[in-house]
User: What shape does this take?
Amino acid sequence: MDSQKKLNFELVFQCGQGDITAVQRLLKEGANPCYQQGTPLMFAIANGHCAIVSFLIKHDAYYANQTFLEMALHLANRLDNVRLGNYIEKIIKNGQSWAKVKDA
Assistant: This one.
């Protein structure tokens, strides 16, 4: 496995684990926040890690489509993560992309 793929796999894992320090380090080392059409972001959302979600968005992570957003909102609601749910609802309601929200 090449070094870029290792960085990306580790990023996905750390996003799921909630280790913001590791996520920050991996992005500095060149991991791709958009790996596999938003997999790091989805792992962070699925595990309720708001700080990592915000960090990834500020580093140009994106979602693949409207279904991705709806699934993210569903996961946030199932986790009773009101803060994350409100954040995602804001994106859906305003029809914004992650890029527009990250600058708000």
Remarks:
- The helical segments are 3-17, 20-28, 35-46, 50-58, 66-78, 82-94, 98-102.
- The longest helix spans residues 3-17.
- The two ends are 38 Å apart (CA to CA).
